[in-house]
Amino acid sequence: MKDLKIQPYLIFNGQCEAAIDFYRQALDAEVEMMMRFKECPDPLPDMNMDEIGERIMHASLRVHGNVLMLSDGCGESGKFEGISLSINLKDTEMAKQLFDNLAADGKVNMPLSKTFWSPLFGMVEDRFGVSWMVNIEAEQNAGA
């Protein structure tokens, strides 16, 4: 099981391309792959390409060594409820920058501040409704 990877797959219901552009800027993400529905080599018979052809069928972003997958989906709601993506860092300045970037036109649910588990932690909902937690990893006690 050491090869097991869990990768978030976010459905944006028509806003995927805007989300990709946003995350490229906010998180310094790189587009690894992007396919529109009109580029599908084996489209489903009920796909109306006039409606969905330009939408993103699948995209993969590389975010500082991590993979984030995105799509416009096939009719899913695009609501992100009951889940947060957690960014864990050691660099305080990078944490502040990423938090501010994600908060642009979004909503700060908990400003970056010291907690009992972290020297800096905050929660933000970006402009697409995706919830993020930004956390500075506390240094481990050498004697523990």
Automatic annotation (TrEMBL):
It comes from Ruficoccus amylovorans. This is VOC family protein. Pfam families: 3-dmu-9_3-mt. Residues 5-134 form the PhnB-like domain. Gene3D superfamilies: 2,3-Dihydroxybiphenyl 1,2-Dioxygenase, domain 1. InterPro entries: Glyas_Bleomycin-R_OHBP_Dase, PhnB-like.
